[in-house]
Each structure stands twice: as structure tokens, then as C-alpha cells.
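Pilot study result, target chain (168 residues):
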Amino acid sequence: MKKETKRHLTFAAIIFIGILLLAFADFIVLEKIYHPLSQQFNISWDVFAATPFGVTLPMQWWHIAFFTIAFVMFALLGVAAKNWRLWLSGTIIFLTGWEDIFYYLIQLKWLPNELAWLDAAPMGLSRVITRTAHVTNTGVVISAIIGLVISTMIILRYNPLRLFKKSV
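Predicted structure:
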């Protein structure tokens, strides 16, 4: 196996493991800590609405914290590998829905039909394609596929503009 191929597969494995770790952390916090406590003490999810400086954002503080954790994790992995492509690819994979897919797969479930809490996330743009009011499971899958293609192109250093260059 070529050295470059080995490196690409290593990056893919690191990103996959990173996304699984994030999905597992998300599962532990939400399913094992928040949901039991919210039922026991009657805590509404709305309590965690992000309202910095009195501006209500269409997300929860947990999402802001989790985005930051993912971004820093992939940045550190990129620095450790001395490769910005690992950081960027991992971040794109995270932002395009792979963590959400694995979050449900860990629970042996498929994505719910509607995921309104993801409307403010980058995959919220999938609503343009699906023509729905909120992010749907189809939208997450479309976003994840697009993210995988972009991430693969970054890792492989593929330049789609080469297709349009004329040979001299």
C-alpha cells in the first residue's frame, strides 16, 4: 500500500473515531444525564435556550458548547497530525450530520422524521432541497453525503477545477 493511501485511510479512521466519540458523548449527556434529570425535576429543554446579550438564538447552549468541543477536538487532531486537511475534513463531517446519524445508531434507532432543533445548524440548508419547514431525516442524509464528498475531496487533495482546464 502506498504511503499516501495509508495516510488517507489513517485520516479517515481518525475522523470516524472522532465522530463516534462525539456521538457517544452526546448520547451520555442527553440520554443518561439530561433526560433522567429533566423528568425527575421537571426541567424544560427551553431553560437551555441560548440568549446571549438578550438575543434569542435558534439553538440551545448545549449546541454552542458541543460545536466548540467538536471544532477544538478536530483542530487538535489536525495539529497533532500536522495537517490542516484533517481538521477541516473532520469539522465538515461533524457539521454535515454524521454525528447526528451515529447518535441515533448508537441507540439502535434511525433518525426521527423531523429534527427541528437542527434548523440553525449548517445542515439546516438541506431544507432548501427537501422543501420542508424543518430539517428532516432525508435532509440530514443528503447533507451527510455532501459533507462526505467534500471531506473526501479535501483529504485526497482533489481539485474539481482540473476538469475545466484545457490541455496545452
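One observation from the pilot: The mean pLDDT is 89. A full batch analysis is planned for the follow-on phase.
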